[in-house]
């Protein structure tokens, strides 16, 4: 956790000069204060930006220019209490993981809703192993195998890869990881896949659905397409992917709504805001475990 007390330079100078009237510090003289502030603006601002970029979810900026000492203290205390409370509860997740039990969390949502971004932070805070079916499929394409070429053609058309291929890649990845607690990102994408996973591998304990408007997802995908070089990040394929999601994947979300396992989080806002709600949803699941009984979805 990093707390930055943000105060305008003129206010800092005013406070230091005021302090100079009661403290005999050699660095509280006008000319020295100016050099200290110049150094602060030149060197320390870079450090602040570094921490802000490195720890976006644990960086707290508090504007203190107009606050009294006690008000600053109360602001800091509030943020620390909230942060340490969340950290303690996150640790609870690790403690409640049954080392002998395999756990699955499905991460669902349309293309561009931010599943991968949110999974990175869930891995950090909750100790899960992240397995992205999209990454598995793209890696298979890169391998140049016969299966990879078949997958490439399907993905370029915006369609769903046959489940026998996807579930085989999933099983291999989970087995090779040597882990037992998984975030399954982007799967199942159809009721058929959900049925196959529950029948062949196991039942999810939690299903997290990141819901987001088509316009927002399209904007994100087109922006990502400028640098990702992904074959499915172009306007034509994006439209087909949305159609596939509505037709095949939305029924999966609707099914899990009836199982008490589904946690819905709006993914419209920035990743930091979205993750606060994602984290809260998972913490609630640990504190109030979902019903583990599961009924296979209809084919």
UniProtKB/TrEMBL annotation:
Could you give a GO molecular-function term held by this entry?
A: AMP kinase activity
Recorded superkingdom:
Eukaryota
Q: Which UniProt keywords apply?
A: ATP-binding, Chloroplast, Cytoplasm, Kinase, Nucleotide-binding, Plastid, Pyrimidine biosynthesis, Transferase
Q: What PROSITE patterns does UniProt report for this protein, alphabetically?
A: ADENYLATE_KINASE
The record's section on HAMAP family has: Adenylate_kinase_Adk
Q: What family does this belong to?
A: Belongs to the adenylate kinase family.
Protein name, UniProt field: adenylate kinase
- What species is this protein from? Ceratopteris richardii (Triangle waterfern)
């Amino acid at each position: 956790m990093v707390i930055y007390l943000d105060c305008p330079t003129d206010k800092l100078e005013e406070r230091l000069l005021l302090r100079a009237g009661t403290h005999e510090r050699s660095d509280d003289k006008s000319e020295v204060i100016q050099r200290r502030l110049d150094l602060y603006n030149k060197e320390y601002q870079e450090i602040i930006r570094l921490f802000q970029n490195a720890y976006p979810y644990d960086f707290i900026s508090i504007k203190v220019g107009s606050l009294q000492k006690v008000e600053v203290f109360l602001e800091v205390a509030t943020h620390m209490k909230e942060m340490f409370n969340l950290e303690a509860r996150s640790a609870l997740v690790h403690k409640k993981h049954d080392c002998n039990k395999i756990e699955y969390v499905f991460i669902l949502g349309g293309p561009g809703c931010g599943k991968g971004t949110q999974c990175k932070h869930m891995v950090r805070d909750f100790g899960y192993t992240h397995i992205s079916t999209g990454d598995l499929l793209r890696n298979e394409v890169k391998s140049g195998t016969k299966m990879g070429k078949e997958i490439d053609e399907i993905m370029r058309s915006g369609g769903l890869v046959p489940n026998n291929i996807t579930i085989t890649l999933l099983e291999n990845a989970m087995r090779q990881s040597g882990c037992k607690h998984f975030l399954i990102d982007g799967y199942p994408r159809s009721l058929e896949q959900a049925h196959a996973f529950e029948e062949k591998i196991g039942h999810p304990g939690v299903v997290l659905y990141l819901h987001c408007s088509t316009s927002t997802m399209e904007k994100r995908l087109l922006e990502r397409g400028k640098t990702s070089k992904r074959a499915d990040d172009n306007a034509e394929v994006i439209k087909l992917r949305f159609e596939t999601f509505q037709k095949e994947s939305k029924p999966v979300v609707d099914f899990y709504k009836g199982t008490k396992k589904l946690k819905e989080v709006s993914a419209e806002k920035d990743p930091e805001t979205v993750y606060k709600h994602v984290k809260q949803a998972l913490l609630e699941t640990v504190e109030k475990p979902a019903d583990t009984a599961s009924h296979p979805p209809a084919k």
